[in-house]
Amino acid sequence: MSKRFRYLISSLLSAIGFYFFISLPYSSHYYGLAVGVVLVAFCFWFGLGIIFEHSLYIRLMSIVLPVGFFVGFGLFTALLPTNFLTLSLLSLFFGIIAYIIFLVENVF
């Protein structure tokens, strides 16, 4: 499987997880945030191919940017009104940015 295909699959899974996170009721956003952080971390480790190969330091440093983006964007979108169109567009935006983060982290 090529790297770009892994990036696409991982970005798609992250975007679907983000969609489910922002569609949760407000009272359970913090639980969804914790589950989403774990999902994004494993998606990025799978996409970059370092889930079992490298040291813990490299794995932790590789998820700082995507996890920070997930937390920041997720807490920001909790303030926006929720309808199907808004949720879909925000998830699409998250997936595109996640793919861009994959491409940037691949360079480093």
What does the model show?
The protein is mainly α. It has one domain. It has five helices and no strands. The mean pLDDT is 86.
Helix content percent band: over 70%
Quick one: biggest sheet? Answer: none
In DSSP terms (H or I, runs of 4 or more residues), the helix count works out at: 5
Low-confidence stretches: none
Straight-line N-to-C gap: 21 Å
Order of helices and strands: HHHHH
Radius of gyration: 14 Å
Number of DSSP strand runs: 0
Overall pLDDT confidence: 86
The coarse silhouette is globular
Q: What percentage of the residues does DSSP assign to strands (E)?
A: under 5%
- Tell me the count of domains: 1
Supply the helix-strand structural class.
Answer: mainly alpha
